[in-house]
Structure formats: C-alpha cells, structure tokens
UniProtKB/TrEMBL annotation:
Record-linked Pfam families: HAD
Record protein name field: Haloacid dehalogenase-like hydrolase
Origin superkingdom: Bacteria
Cross-referenced InterPro entries: HAD-like_SerB (IPR050582), HAD-like_sf (IPR036412), HAD_sf (IPR023214)
Keywords on record: Hydrolase, Metal-binding, Signal
Signal as UniProt keyword: yes
C-alpha cells in the first residue's frame, strides 16, 4: 500500500471518528448548536444547579414544520388529497361537491377558501367510517406509493436530519421525547417510530373519538368525526397535561401555533428550561417563510417572544449543514 493510499485511509478514518464524536454533525458550529449542547450538559451534570433528574426530563416537539416539512401542504393534507383522488371512482357524487370536486380538479385554492368547514369535510371523507387498522394500512400504502412532488423522496425519508439528531442526542442523555402536534394522532403514529424513534404512546395530536364494537372476528375501533380535538395553539398545554401528566423541561416548535406549548414549558417553576424555534429560511434546500406560509406554520409572534425569553431561533439556511439525510433523500438537480 503506497503512502497516498495510507494517508487517504487515515483521513477517512479520522473524518468518520470526528462525525461519530459529534452527535449533532448535521448542524453547523453556530450559536444554535452550542445552545442545545450546553443546555443538555448543564441539565445532566449532577454537580450543577441546573441538573434535571432523569424522571423529569420530558421534552416536547411539534411535528409539522419542526420535524418534517409542512409546505406546500402538510403531509397529512397531501395524504387526504391523494385519498380523495384514489377513492373517487367509488364516489361519483364527489365531482359535484364544492370541496371534494375542487380537490379532484386540483383547485387547492378553492379548498383553502372553504376554511375549517371544508377541511373537516375532506377529513371526514378520508379519515372516518373505517377501522383504525384500515386507516393505518392506508397511510402505510400511501407512504409506499407516493413521493414528494418537489424532492421526489418518500415521505418517511423526509424527517429533518438535524432534528432527528437532536432527538437521538436527547434520548442518549436520558430525556424522554414526545410529539405534541396539530397533526392527526393516528396519522403520525404510523410513522413516528420509524422516522424519529418515538413510540406511538409518546405521540399526541389532533383526534376524534373512535367507536368500539364486537365483531365476528373479535373487536374493532371505528374512526368517526365525533368529539374532535384540535391539538394546536392553547390546546397544546391542555394535551400535555392530559397525556403526559407533567410539565416539560424543553420545547421545540416552528410557528405561532407552538407558542402556548413553549410558554407553558418555559414557565416550569422547578428547572432551567430550553426553547427552540425552527425558522424556515432556506428556499433552496426546503422553503422560506414566516409571516406568509404556503399553507400553515405562520411565525410572527413567536419570533418576538423568543427574543424576549431568550429561546434559540434556528436559521435553517445558516445553522443546518443538511436538511434531509442525503442517504435517504437526495435533492433533485436544480433544487
């Protein structure tokens, strides 16, 4: 083996070792990365006044726009749109419906103009009157068969790599990671374990009540639109109390819809907490928006409060080396 080959092997080994030693290797060495690591070090060092006992290390994450993209549509809304088109041959009456017909005509502006009432109708057509098992199968089939139109990637490969590393880093240091999101609880639970290592019981989202019944084969839960709970804005602290039973010590979000969750976390009277907001500033590798998002994720008040509270604001363009894991989701030429 000649000297050049030996040097190359040693260099590659050194690079691999450095990456392994850096749990946040997808982050640039900026203030945001340093803030995360410093807080974790302070929270886990028993010799410091900032120490947090392991049984209190509960951390909450929004999902849409914080762990995966929410533009131009949230994944769940894109799923609903695709489901309407898939199921349309069984429902010829849909073409005459103002909302469902607009979906079939690719008129998403008309769908958006229909507001919450239209959204609920879209969800009723695609998320209800089926068993929970059938719904999970439909989501899995959608993930297997559909690709993001801009990036050409599987949806389950589009978790933000820097945030996935934060999740792993926190868990490696004894923290319990939860999703508290406005997305549908049953939709996210299909994907959370594979994408983020978060088990279904630690996923909290919007939901409607299911109905239990006995069947010839055993039992079933059937999804309905009854008792709908929208896990967004002020409802997030309510959901945290209901499902977690204790106040978190850190919160990660990206929009004004996450503000109440972050304020609730920051007001924890027992520990020095941490807050982080992902600011979408990268229109080349992802999307750039705050006050005028393509679909959801408006961020105005959150930026102001973050400055007042000393929360970390992530500039996606400057703070992240990568957005998606290139081994799973390589950008198309031109992106």
């Amino acid at each position: 083996m000649n000297k050049k080959v030996v040097l190359s092997v040693l260099l590659l080994a050194a690079m691999s070792s450095a990456q392994a030693a850096d749990p946040l290797s997808a982050w640039n060495d900026t203030a945001a990365k340093n803030a995360i690591m410093q807080w974790v070090q302070n929270a886990t060092n028993q010799d410091r006044s900032t120490y947090i006992p392991p049984d209190k290390r509960y951390v909450v994450f929004d999902n849409d726009g914080t762990l995966w993209p929410e533009a131009p549509l949230t994944f769940q809304l894109q799923f609903a749109v695709d489901e309407v088109k898939r199921l349309a041959p069984q429902h010829p009456e849909w073409k005459n419906d103002p909302v469902l017909g607009a979906v079939l005509n690719n008129d998403l502006k008309a769908v958006a103009a229909s507001g919450e009432k239209g959204l609920m109708q879209l969800l009723a057509a695609t998320h209800s009157d089926i068993t929970t098992e059938e719904f999970a199968q439909r989501v899995s089939q959608w993930v297997d068969n559909q690709r993001d139109q801009r990036f050409g990637c599987r949806y389950d490969s589009m978790g933000y790599q820097p945030m996935r590393q934060v999740l792993d880093y926190l868990r490696d240091n004894g923290f319990k990671t939860w999703i508290i999101s406005g997305g549908g609880i049953d939709f996210m639970r299909v994907l959370s374990q594979k994408m983020y290592g978060i088990p279904p019981e630690q996923v909290v989202g919007s939901f409607s009540l299911s109905e239990f019944s006995l069947t010839e084969d055993g039992t079933q839960l059937r999804k309905t639109m009854k008792g709908a709970f929208n896990d967004d804005a002020a409802a997030k602290p309510v959901a945290i109390h209901l499902f977690m039973g204790q106040r978190p010590v850190a919160a990660f979000g990206n929009s004004d819809g996450d503000l109440a969750m972050m304020q609730y976390t920051a007001a924890n009277p027992d520990f020095k907490t941490f807050g982080l907001i992902v600011h979408h500033t990268d229109d080349k590798r992802e999307y750039a928006y705050d006050s005028h998002p393509p679909a959801s994720g408006k961020l105005v008040e959150g930026l102001t409060v973050a400055k007042e509270k000393g929360w970390t604001v992530v500039d996606m363009q400057k703070d992240w080396k990568t957005v998606f894991d290139p081994a799973q989701c390589a950008l198309k030429p031109g992106n």
